[in-house]
Amino acid sequence: MLMASALFSLYFVLLAISSTSTAMPGNFNREVDITWGNGRGKILNAGQLITLSLDKSSGSGFQSKNQYIYGRFDVQLKLIPGNSAGTVTTFYLSSQGQMHDEIDLEFLGNLSGDPYTLHTNVFTQGRGNREEQFKLWFDPTMDFHTYSILWNPKHIVFYVDGTPIREFKNMEAKGVAYPKRQAIRVYASLWAAEDWATRGGMVKADWSQAPFAAAFKGYEANGCVWPAAGGGATACSARGSSWMWQEFDATSLRRMRWVQRNYMIYNYCTDAKRFPQGMPPECSATP
């Protein structure tokens, strides 16, 4: 975790970005490390593909070599086919420590023929409990689909195949903490969560189907790297740098509302029983 005072200064540095090219996108050998799984995670095809596997002993995962302050992060993912109950496949951003920031995409497995649940959450300074969940409008096990996280000073946006599904706005003016002072890494993992992943833990993994496997390709991290090579405060990707100032237009908002109307299955901002002392302040600004 970086010192808050240093990163507070960094925020203002970012407002006057000079675009400096970071690593070319797409090669896992160059951009990530497999950090756990004892061989269950593999980089294949000259760095163009990663497979993560899970058996009863362990899952597996990888993390980015770089740390970032803000960025646009994309990956193509093909999920576990068939009976994936009790498993969780993830792609997320996180800092370190008890007061960490985290931005989550988690795919909760299900019984054969039943759809995955896409679980999203945002943590700021160690506080989460901001879950929104969706069913997808396609079978995510049949082919690769692109999942993206945009994180800039204005908002966090989750995308599926370029369609926005959720926005978390910067509402510091309302007293809502917003991630901006801690450098993050990109993470992905495949692990067992039988106690909660499928129908609240009612359905367990069928280990006779193991090993379970998910595949990742097309990874792109366009962000501000901390610290920059050469001793600078930060280096921001020249490629697609418009992400830093991207806001919603009417079309994006309309597409997001279509997804939420048709495919959202849980929104913490409508769960009044969960917050008897009053809804979180950011809920008043939820589109």
Describe it:
By secondary structure, the chain is mostly beta strands. The protein has a single domain (4-11, 23-272), classed as Jelly Rolls (Sandwich), CATH 2.60.120. It is built from 3 helices and 16 strands. The protein has an 8-stranded antiparallel beta sheet with strand order 1-4-13-6-7-8-9-16. Strands 2, 3, 5, 10, 11, 12, 14 and 15 form an 8-stranded antiparallel beta sheet that branches. A hairpin with a 7-residue loop joins strand 6 and strand 7 (102-108). Mean pLDDT is 87; it is low at 1-23.
Topology:
Layout: H1 4-14, H2 28-31, E1 32-36, E2 41-44, E3 49-54, E4 60-64, E5 67-78, E6 87-94, E7 102-108, E8 117-123, E9 132-135, E10 145-151, E11 155-160, E12 163-169, E13 185-192, E14 212-226, E15 235-236, H3 250-263, E16 264-267
Antiparallel strand pairs: 1-4, 2-3, 3-14, 4-13, 5-10, 5-14, 6-7, 6-13, 7-8, 8-9, 9-16, 10-11, 11-12, 14-15
EC number: 2.4.1.207
GO biological process, one term: xyloglucan metabolic process
Family: Belongs to the glycosyl hydrolase 16 family.
Total discrete domains:
1
What order do the SSEs take from the amino end to the carboxyl end, as H and E? HHEEEEEEEEEEEEEEEHE
The percentage helix is 10-25%
Morphology: globular
Give the low-confidence spans: 1-23
Structural class: mainly beta
Radius of gyration: 19 Å
User: Briefly, what CATH class?
Assistant: Mainly Beta
Q: Per DSSP, what share of the residues sits in E-state strands of 2 or more residues?
A: 35-45%
Question: End-to-end span in angstroms?
Answer: 32 Å
